[in-house]
Amino acid sequence: MTDATSPLVRRVAILLAVATAAGIAIAAFVLSFSALWDVATRVWPNRHLSWLGPAVVDATILQATVSLLVVAHSAKPGERRYFWSLLVGAAATSIAGNALHAITPPNQPLTPVVAALIACIPPIFLCLSTHSVVVLTRRVARRPAAARGATGTAPEPLAEASNFDEVEDGLPVGNPELVEDITAALVPAATRETVISRARRIREEHGLATGTAKIAAVLMHRATYPEASLRELAAAGNVHHNTAKKILEVDADRGADLTLV
User: Fold this and answer.
1) Whose CB among 89, 150, 234, 236 lies 3.0–4.6 Å from 244's, allowing a Cys bridge?
2) Residue 51: is it exposed, middle or buried by C-beta count within 10 angstroms (0-12/13-18/19+)?
3) CB 257 within 8 A of CB 223
4) 174, 181 in Cβ contact below 8 A?
5) pTM of this structure
6) Which band of pLDDT confidence, cut at 50, 70 and 90, is reported for residue 193?
């Protein structure tokens, strides 16, 4: 069955949906912030400063959300788990604060235990947010480190040396970190050429639609991290996990595992 909806109707519907979602988001933020501000004022009586309490919670939610976009294709699942945990924890804190505001009568002081727990939120979130910056900074620092060899000079781009059929800016298509791992000077040139040739033969002999660069990224990650899970290998090559499984099955039939020497 074909979709008979006209493009104009679809665009209008999308715009209305986006506008509605934005309105709901603004209303929810204002209501939640107001409730959390009231709860925070019972812990920090100075209302000119107590608004910073809910600001810390909402800022942590925003930071975790943006960070998840940055590590969405990371080959290290621990990074994604950390930011998902941070997002869920901050959101749960916000929900709990709103619930506490709803069940606590106006102007009634909080119990000492509850007040102490709320007072601990800002320093705890400060530590978590600082660690988030460290995680993201390490990702940025790995890029120039991987692009330089032991002598401080940049190695020859893998794409130029091997005629990859899928390249962007002189580098093979795939996970950026894995591309850097392949081109790093710590990986011997002979090993790189072995991976490239092996990936190309697998694609040609078995008629795989997956690009040579992505196959090479999967093989290199498997050689570098033998204990990597199937989903980690799939993330390394930016392919579906079933595709990564097929690549490994085909490569296993060829024998002679890759090793980094």
Assistant:
1) 234
2) middle
3) yes
4) no
5) 0.57
6) low
